[in-house]
Amino acid sequence: MDLPVDEWKSYILQKWSLLPTAVQLTIATAETLSDVFLLSSSLLQPEDEMFLKSLSRGYFVGKDPAAPLFYREEGNKKFQEKDYTGAAVLYSKGVSHSRPHTEDIALCYANRSAALFHLGQFEACLEDIGRAQLHGYPERLLPKMLLRKAECLVALGRPQEASQTITDLESNLTSQASLALSPFQTLQRNLHHLKMKVRDKEAVMETFPAVLANALENMDLREESEQVSSASSSVSLGTDPSKGRCLVATKDVLPGELLVKEDAFVSVLIPGEVPPLPHGLGSRWDTRISNGDLYCHRCLKHTLATVPCDGCSYAKYCSLECLRRAWELYHSAECALGGLLLTLGIFCHVALRLTLVARFQDFGKVIRKLCDEINSRAVCVPESKDPVKTLSNGLGERETSGTAVETPIPGCGVNGKYENNYNAVFNLLPQTENHSPEHKFLCALSVSALCKQLQAAGFQALTAGLKSSKLKAAVAPDLCPDLHVWGVALLRHMLQLQCNAQAITTIQQTGSKEGIITSSRQVRLATGVFPVISLLNHSCSPNTSVSFVGTVATVRASQHIRRGQEILHCYGPHVSRLGIAARQQKLKSQYFFNCSCLACQTEAHATAAAPRWEAFCCSSCRALLQGGDVLSCSSGSCTEAVSRDHLAARLRDLQRQTGLARELLRSGELEKAIQQLSGCQRDAESFLWAEHSVLGEIEDDLAQAYAALGDWKKSAAHLQKSLTVVEARHGPSSVEMGHELFKLAQILFNGFEVPEALSTIQKAETVLAVHCGPCSDEIQELQQMKSCLLDLPPVPVGPSA
Ligand SMILES: *[C@@H]1O[C@H](CO)[C@@H](O)[C@H](O)[C@H]1NC(C)=O
Ligand SMILES: *[C@@H]1O[C@H](CO)[C@@H](O)[C@H](O)[C@H]1NC(C)=O
Ligand SMILES: *[C@@H]1O[C@H](CO)[C@@H](O)[C@H](O)[C@H]1NC(C)=O
Ligand SMILES: CC(=O)N[C@H]1CO[C@H](CO)[C@@H](O)[C@@H]1O
Ligand SMILES: CC(=O)N[C@H]1CO[C@H](CO)[C@@H](O)[C@@H]1O
Ligand SMILES: [Zn+2]
Ligand SMILES: [Zn+2]
Ligand SMILES: [Zn+2]
Ligand SMILES: [Zn+2]
Fold first, then answer.
1. Atom of ligand 1 at shortest distance to CA of 141?
2. What is the pLDDT of residues 575-589, one digit of tens each?
3. By CB distance 3.0 to 4.6 Å, which of 86, 465, 497, 741 could disulfide with 78?
């Protein structure tokens, strides 16, 4: 996903292994990225490019004129099954394969408007009706669609426009008497009904925003730091000789305080785990739904009503505005490269987009520095082996008598401020010396092939206006000089991304259909570059939490941070999810450092006991079992001893049994599921420590099953037990705890246990506001539950027919 597809990866590694040792050595010891790029790209052969092209063809991103009809028919089937979401997505796929101003696109939009109408998304429905008309919806079908439009306007409480639509409809009807009249009469009755009610509604709507008002507090930085853009004044940029750049608290910070709110410099949506279609066989049309169908490719907003790029079937947006902005900034260059970019992976795509977006910033300046760099290397012996240093020294751009004045902190502008811009991105560390030579070779060849495609697509214009004359002709034997510079920049970004790419995540609700409680899971939606957040150093037990709304990341304190302490976040391996050895290994291989965070220090000194959530208990006295291959009871008077293998086998068996129970739960056989789960629970309690995570999962499943049966009391009792396990493992203010409290709140709410529900809502709100932000869906839902319980005026959902 991040790196190129496996076929290309193994092809290049094979190529690398066949290189003469002397060539390998030259690449491995090359002093600058420019040299790595030059040496590698001179080895890219036409047959390599052919192979890459054949892989790219597996991703079909063009428009297929036969596809709209196919998707419309598939959508109609889903519609019949009342799966309106599924239908809307299939109609969207039809839209994305249609050319503008064709009957195909108009029909797809019109069909989608019907699905959106049934989903209650009236605004989106109206927009689709407008789009259908704009693209030439056939006159003969118009009355049916106008009827839907009027109904939407009625539902939205816009009676004047509804009457106007009715008038249009009537004049259309007199010219073609094909439409059955009964739905039309129903509509007129609804309209009449609505007109009566409209004034009362308006009064209710005015009271509504007050309920959510306090959720909107604390959404913006109260005061921005003068030194770091997108950060609050509680944050300053430190430079510790041993740690490099880092963020430090300038005053005492309380849990929940917003520290950084940064929009991604660029982000690239991850299309989802949909493998390419094997060429030549099977259907070329994919009916599976992926994140690429559900989120705007620019702003990452969730939407069922996407508008596609006019040129390809891949890029889709939430609005014409996003479509236009994406085209201007980057998609006009990327559109023709869709399949290649999917083959080369997200990092390559992000690298390209960084340079494309940079054209509108100070890229020219950076490119000139790169040129100088390449030039000076060709002419004289470089003073510094570190191109970053050489570059950043000059970036301050205050040349006094021919010598560059060193800017104090890399990435800062002339004014000394660190900002979310290309200069800061460019100065993120590429860790050139830490990457393996094969990896650099893979990245360089991928980037080189991409450059050739850019060139073939006529993109000399990309670097127009740059002083390419500064480059010696000898530097780039094959590529034009501009593209060579472009290639070096792309390679640099690709290497930077391994340590600096930030996963943009979202919470997806996975609710069972019949049960009312929903679980949520975090999914990775996109990869982004956030130069300010990249300044945060890692801790396995961090004092902040990061969350996202679209492409905007917010970092909040999750604990009290004292003035002068470093602000830390977790790069992935968190203390509550991985043991110390696995964490150290991951951080070392991906980020190239030995973690010495507080958690790692304390754990390294503690005895290497297994964590409590993996611990076993004595079957005779329930005390904790301890030891290596043979575990013995920790209670002094007991002599019980068991082999670890035996316990591991029992655990595997238990997990098989709970797997079966989960299948029963999924297929709705609730009584059987409960019976099976109760058996698992008894078994688990006989040998697992009370805080073992498997025991917690069983309790959680039992809670789900009872909730589905509507037995809220039992459901809540089981969830309480699951909650204690989650708390022991992840801590009382962790995001996992927040989600578990959210579930408990839903159950208590449904069971109408008012005081317990209110106190649980309160706890869930406190925890989730830190991790998900005070405006997240969960918080809003909690607030609605609270206002319901407190008997506030109900939140109007719009006048339903
Ligand atoms: C989709 O459009 C076609 C053509 O107008 C129509 O026959 C069909 O009923 C529509 N499907 C839905 C679900 O509205
Ligand atoms: C049908 O309604 C549309 C308005 O949506 C109008 O532009 C068109 O002229 C009408 N057609 C007839 C025949 O009245
Ligand atoms: C990490 O520790 C190992 C062994 O303790 C050492 O060899 C290595 O140089 C260290 N790496 C870094 C980046 O400090
Ligand atoms: C990304 C980053 O800056 N990591 C640094 C965090 O701090 C340790 C030392 O404590 C450095 O080795 C890392 O490079
Ligand atoms: C609880 C915890 O780990 N808090 C830490 C937050 O980060 C600072 C480092 O700057 C630590 O000192 C705190 O202990
Ligand atoms: Zn958008
Ligand atoms: Zn496109
Ligand atoms: Zn650590
Ligand atoms: Zn015992």
1. 5
2. 888 888 889 999 999
3. 86
- Ligand 4 close to Cβ of residue 99 (< 6 A): no
Among 448, 470, 500, the domain boundary falls at: 500
Chain segment 551-610, per-residue pLDDT in tens: 999 999 988 999 999 999 999 888 888 888 889 999 999 999 999 998 888 876 665 566
Write out the E strands in 465-517: 502-511
- Fill in the amino acid letter for 484: H
Q: Note the pLDDT tens digit of each residue in 368-405.
A: 666 665 554 443 223 333 333 333 333 333 333 333 44
- pLDDT tens readout for residues 77-112: 999 999 999 999 999 999 999 999 999 999 999 999
Beta bridge partners, 643, equal 630
- DSSP assignments along 305-351, one per residue: S-EE-SS-SS-EESSHHHHHHHIIIIIHHHGGGHHHHHHH-HHHHHH
Q: How far is the CA of 161 from the centre of ligand 2 (A)?
A: 15
In a domain, 358, yes or no: yes
CB-based pocket (< 6 A), ligand 5: 541, 543, 559, 561, 565-566, 568, 598
The end-to-end CA distance of the chain, in Å, is: 46
Going by DSSP bridges, is the β-strand pair 568-569/537-538 parallel, antiparallel, or unpaired?
A: parallel
In terms of DSSP H, where are the helices of 644-776?
Answer: 644-666, 670-687, 693-709, 712-730, 735-750, 754-772
SS3 content of the chain, % helix, strand, coil (to 5): 55, 10, 35
Confidence grade of residue 512 (pLDDT, cut at 50, 70, 90): very low
Q: Compute, in angstroms, the gap from residue 559 CA to the centroid of ligand 5.
A: 8
CA nearest ligand 1 atom 1, residue: 111
593 CA distance to ligand 3 middle (Å): 7
Domain-ending residue, one of 464, 481, 500: 500
Ligand 2: does its nearest atom lie under 6 Å from the Cβ of 171?
Answer: yes
Domain count for the chain: 3
Q: Are 250 and 231 in contact (CB under 8 A)?
A: no
Atom of ligand 5 nearest to the CA of 248: 10
Do 189 and 318 reside in the same domain of the chain?
A: no
